[in-house]
Amino acid sequence: MSQCRLSPEKLRALNQKYHVFCEIAEDLGALDEYPPHFHFSAKDNLCARGFQARAGSRILEGYRPPFDATAIARMKRFGGVLLGKTTMDEFGFGTFSTNSSHGIPLNPFDQTRACGGSSGGGAAVTCLLEDHVALGVSTGGSISCPASFCGVFGLTPTYGRVSRYGLIDYGNSLDKIGLMARRPEALRTFLPVIAGPDPKDPTSCTQAALDLSPTKVTRVAVPEEAMANLDRGVEAKFTEALDLIGGGIGIEVKRVKMPSLKYALAAYYIIATSEASTNLARYCGMRFGVQNKNVSQHFNDFFSETRSASFGNEAKRRILIGTYTRAIGFRDRYYLKALAVRQSIISEYDRIFQEADLVLTPTMPFVAPSFDQIERMRPLEVYQADFLTVPPNLAGLPHISMPCGYLNSLPAGMQFVAPHWEERRLLVMAENWNKQFQTRFPEGCP
Amino acid sequence: MKIGLEVHVQLPTKSKMFCSCPTTAMEPNNAICPTCLGFPGSRPVLNRRALELGVEIARFMGCIIAEEIWFSRKTYFYPDLPKNFQITQYESPLGIDGQVFLGEKRIGIWRVHIEEDPGRIKRVGRSGEEVSLVDYNRSGIPLVEIVTAPDMSSPEEARQFMSELLVELRHVIGTTPSDEQSVRCDANISVGEERVEIKNIQGLKNLEKALKFEASRQAKMLEAGMRIVRETRRYDEERKVTMSAREKEFEEDYGYIGEPDLGTYNIGNFARSVVTAETPLRRAQRIAGEYVLDFEKAKQVVLTSMALADVLEALAKRVDPEFAMNWVLGPISANWSAIHPRLDQQVQADIVRVVGQVADREITDSEGRRRIGAIAAGEYPDDISCAVADSELDAIISAFLDSNPNVVKDHATNPKAANSAIGHVMKTAPGKYNSKEVVEAVKKEIEKRR
Predict the structure, then answer these.
(1) B431: confidence class by pLDDT, cuts 50, 70, 90
(2) Does residue B101 belong to the interface with chain A, where contact is any CB pair within 8 Å?
(3) Least CB-packed of A397, B196, B383, B400 within 10 Å?
């Protein structure tokens, strides 16, 4: 299937250049077998037998889960060969995959720039290897963002569409496992493989049946609020894309107002960090991951010692924020209020979907930034970069990012959002777009 | 004095609350899996039986049942808690505002909810060189927490509440005495204004002792004009004293959030379909009311066995209930260990017949007792009981009068002449008939022959 034969050695060589894997399979034997198998990668927060699952964190050093995540098990059963685990921001906490303890992935279009995050390694591998499919995970945009920066198609299914069994949690009510590929046809092939109810994850058991039968997209809505704070170049590329959608593809583009979008970011960071701070409580050097040998101390000190030494700064920041937002006296003002905001954002999308098939925005307000630029950004600026990817994630809506233009040879992305369980509209849209738009990929295969 | 309890009882399920590990005790750390160890990537799946048992308890306590419930994360760091949060219920307990009765006294039930148990810490080694070991077999075992209003007014009453609760739960959800060994509770007690919480008391005896100690400690302090501080204390089982747990002054902040992995459950319809069997103490109350009997005696009967209560109720429908109670607590109880294993409908009918005959004075008390003994021994109906059927009384008298015709003649002038016939019956069938019955029969037969 591939134009070049993959081997662990070749992958290691590729990795030396781009830091996309944190662990590479020892043996790709099955790839040579007949009938042909396909290769895939998995973000490091997905558990796979035979690999460590460290979720980009030092605190999980040495954790070898004794089970496969359902999504990985289903890919393997379908003939998939797992090449390796891809680099990511620690626990998914980041927009550039720079908060990673096992290598920071470099953008295949320009190695001085970031891949986006938090599924950065996966997006970069997809960009570098033909016929590759990457399992990514999105909590607040962690598939759309790197797909945009690396110029690939990134599909985030409806919350509950893909079992989260075997996923190392960030925010359980937000986490979604999805796919990245160079071509939308691959997404159509593999979504049914990983989707479907799984008794090991009760939240996957109430899903509507996956229906990928043909459908027509006739009207997309573009919220005015999405056009604020965009990089000029990105805005221009997005506007060109709108012309192509309205012209060549013949889909009506309708401008709408979505005033509640501006609250999504705040609500998201409160809910996500509240959940994350409880999920990360278990990491204390006792039962898995890093082992703290200094047992002759009070357990509080033992836990603090491990956590202080092994969590990165962004993880610590989010634990603190999340602990604060659910504390007595703040819980009502932050956590409970954020839950209410989430409901009102879902209602606002519902309203838009009465008159449009999809909602369309740019994916990220800028193209992949350089590591120097990132270094100068304050945490709040980084959070604000997610303002277009967060709303559909908060609402649990399926969405897809795809390249919409190239700015100085760097891809810009646009993102379509569909109603719950309507992934097929996204695939139809992506396929239509891919017929009209010429995607570009750098020379990757070593 | 006001005492309120938070009682934790393990629910008798085969597997744990959120995984399929068994709940039966084994070697330490044998009944564990990624879920109950909180491994990253694992996920909880609710054991529906635990939810059902919890709802049954809430229904039994007459609680208002929530239509929809969800779970919450209670976050605190402790080595026996694998995820460092406990999955429990916070905003949506299964039931609220219920009640139970201790005799006549109403004890309010504030809430009933279910949650997972943490593991267990064991300290081993000599003092000074102690090592703490953690056994996670208990981690994830389902518990019900029952929170009462501070309606109990003495340590004895608190203990009575606990012991009656355990009796009732055996019948409501099928707990066994071995489940009861793990019963724990937190007790709030105030002698004056301020309350003190005693945490994690194991067992009924310790509950009463801890409360007694704490009541007298508080009373002494008040007498001495000292102020009682609101605090958490723990009970030292060996020294038999409560001690300040030296926790922070402020209420612990568990930072509750919803448990997103479990979603919501609609329990309203299930709750409405639950029919709770009549429990022993409820039955004692009904029996006392329905048959106008002493509650304590009724309680004694039901606590002996619900089958003995069946016998009591069958008897009370046939004879005077007070009379039935005396026979149940007397001869029947005395033979109960032998009767119980063979008790079936026939045996119960035999008992009713015998006690009925005594009540009707067809047979004497002592014959009744003898026959209950025979029932217990499996020898009823026996030779004597069979040999002389009731209708045979007339035949015995007839035969006697046939061979002694002057008895009838003498009786016209001297009623005492009948005594020879009565004496004959008593001699022929000792204990079979009561004297009043024989006198009547003899008189009737003599009249007939006039």
Answers:
(1) low
(2) no
(3) B383
